[in-house]
Design a protein that fits this description.
8-stranded mixed beta sheet, Nucleotidyltransferase, domain 5, 5-stranded mixed beta sheet, 2 domains
C-alpha cells in the first residue's frame, strides 16, 4: 500500500531545533514494517521484503509530552533527529505512526508496505507461534493485558494504529512468550492447586524473540555449542535469563508476568509473595498502588534511591546506593546462573545480549568473576574490546557477546506468515 496519501494529514515541516542530514534516497520496493509500541514510544524498522534486509530503523519517544524522533538507515546515508517543542509532537500511537509513515514515504520513493509485524509481549496459552492478526486475535490479546500491564495495552495500541493506517495489509503478531511454550512441566508450573495451572496460572517466560534470534546466531557461528547446554542472559531495562538445550528453551527466570526473576530498570524481579500480603494487610496498599510500586518504582531505580533506572547512570555515579543497586543486580545474575546450570545439568556456553549485556564490559566482568567452579575463565582484554568470544582459550565454558535483533526476528516471521496468507488466499475454496 502506498503511504503517500498520508502526507496531507502529517506534514513534515521540521520542528524547531531540527537537524537534517543530507539524505541519499534508497531505491524503492516492497517493504516490511516492524513496530514495537511502548507506553510512551513507538519503535519501527523498515526492511526490504527480500531477505528481509534492514533499511531504516528509528523511534518516536516521549508521546504526549516532549516528543522526539530519531531514524537512521542501515547504510548510514540517513541519520535524522527531530525534537518537538513541548506539547506539539504526536500525542498517541496513532499520531506517531501516521507521522512515521509519512516520513518513510518522503525518504523511500514508491514506499510499498506489504506486511506489518508487531512485537506482542504476551501470547498466553493460545499462541505459541506468530499469528495473522484479525478481530478475534485482538480480542483475545486484550484479555491478557492484566498479565503484562506495562506492555500489552501499548502493543495493542500499535496494532490498532497500524490496522487503521494500512487497511487490508497483513498484520502479524509475534510473541515474546512463544519461544518458551515447550518448557517441561517442572519449569512451567507453580506449586499451586492444579486447577490454577490448567486455567493458565503458570510460568510463561519472556524476551523470547531475543532468545530465538540468539539461538539462530549460535547455529550459524557455533553449531557444536548450540546443540549443547547454553545459558543466555538478556540484560537491559528488562532483564531475564534462559537455559537452552539444542537451541530450545527449557527454563527461564521470568514467570507468570514480566516481574519475576532478575531485578530490572524499574521492576523488582523475584519477590517473596509474603511481601505483597504484608503491603495489603498492614500498609493498606491497594492493588493499583502495589502494581505501581513493583512495575515503576522498584528495581535499579528503587535500590539506587530513585537515582536512575539506567545502568550507565548508575555506573557513572559515586553514591553508595548506586553501587549497592549494581551489586544486587550482579548477585542475582550469578545466583540464576547457578540455578539454570543445574537445570541444564552442566554448561557449555553462556551468552550476553541486550542493552546492558552487549554494552557493559564492567557488568559482564563482574558477573563472570568467581565462576571458575563452572569452568568459566574470562579474557579481560577480549571482554573490554567487546569481541564475540570473551572467554580465554583455557575456559571450558565458551563465553560470548552476541548483539540481539528482535526487529529482524519479527521481520522474518512476518514475511513467512504474510507469504503463507498470500498462498492460501490464492487457492480456490
Amino acid at each position: 500500500m502506498s503511504a503517500a496519501n498520508l502526507l496531507a494529514t502529517a506534514p513534515l515541516t521540521p520542528p524547531s531545533g531540527t537537524r537534517l542530514s543530507e539524505v541519499r534516497r534508497p531505491s524503492s520496493g516492497a517493504c516490511l514494517l516492524t513496530l514495537n509500541a511502548g507506553s510512551s514510544s513507538i519503535k519501527f524498522a523498515l526492511f526490504d521484503a527480500e531477505g528481509p534486509r534492514l533499511r531504516i530503523v528509528g523511534q518516536i519517544e516521549g508521546l504526549g509530552a516532549d516528543a522526539a524522533f530519531h531514524a537512521r538507515s542501515a547504510d548510514h546515508a540517513i541519520d535524522e533527529h527531530y525534537a518537538w517543542s513541548a506539547g506539539n509532537g504526536p500525542v498517541n500511537h496513532g499520531d506517531a505512526l501516521t507521522w512515521i509513515i509519512a516520513w518513510l514515504a518522503q525518504h523511500v520513493p514508491g514506499l510499498d508496505v506489504v506486511a506489518v509485524g508487531h512485537r506482542v509481549v504476551h501470547g498466553g496459552l493460545a499462541y505459541s507461534a506468530p499469528v495473522l492478526v484479525d478481530d478475534a486475535v485482538v480480542a483475545r490479546l486484550h484479555e491478557l493485558e492484566p498479565l503484562a500491564p506495562l506492555h500489552q495495552p501499548h502493543n495493542l495500541a500499535g496494532i490498532a494504529a497500524a490496522r487503521a493506517a494500512f487497511g487490508t495489509v497483513p498484520q502479524v503478531a509475534c510473541f515474546d512468550t512463544a519461544f518458551h511454550r515447550d518448557h517441561p512441566f517442572v519449569n512451567d508450573c507453580f506449586a499451586l492447586p492444579r486447577e490454577l495451572y490448567d486455567a493458565g496460572v503458570r510460568r510463561y517466560g519472556f524476551h523470547g524473540l531475543s532468545y530465538e534470534y540468539v539461538a539462530g546466531r549460535l547455529r550459524e557461528l557455533f553449531p557444536m555449542h548450540v546443540a549443547g547446554r547454553v545459558l543466555v542472559a538478556h540484560l537491559g531495562n528488562g532483564a531475564s535469563m534462559c537455559a537452552m538445550r539444542d537451541g530450545r528453551s527449557i527454563a527461564s527466570t521470568m514467570g507468570f508476568s514480566a516481574l519475576d526473576g532478575l531485578p530490572m530498570g524499574t521492576r523488582c524481579g523475584q519477590l517473596d509473595p509474603g511481601v505483597l500480603l504484608y503491603l495489603m494487610q498492614h500498609e493498606g496498599m491497594s492493588a493499583d498502588e502495589i502494581a505501581d510500586l513493583l512495575y515503576k518504582r522498584s528495581g535499579l531505580k528503587g535500590l539506587s534511591g530513585g537515582l536512575s533506572h539506567d545502568m550507565r547512570a548508575l555506573e557513572a555515579a559515586a553514591t553508595v546506593a548506586a553501587g549497592e543497586a549494581i551489586d544486587y543486580f550482579v548477585f542475582r545474575i550469578k545466583r540464576e546462573i547457578g540455578g539454570l546450570a543445574a537445570a541444564l545439568e552442566g554448561l557449555d556456553a553462556i551468552v550476553f545480549t541486550g542493552g546492558i549485556g552487549e554494552n557493559s564490559a564492567h557488568i559482564r566482568s563482574r558477573v563472570l568473576q568467581g565462576m571458575a567452579w563452572l569452568g568459566i575463565e574470562l579474557d579481560e582484554a577480549r571482554n573490554r574490546d567487546g569481541e564475540t568470544v570473551i572467554s580465554s582459550s583455557r575456559s571450558r565454558v565458551l563465553c560470548l557477546r552476541i548483539p540481539t535483533d528482535e526487529e529482524g526476528m519479527i521481520a522474518r516471521h512476518t514475511l513467512e506468515i504474510a507469504m503463507q496468507n498470500r498462498t492460501s488466499a490464492a487457492v480456490p475454496a
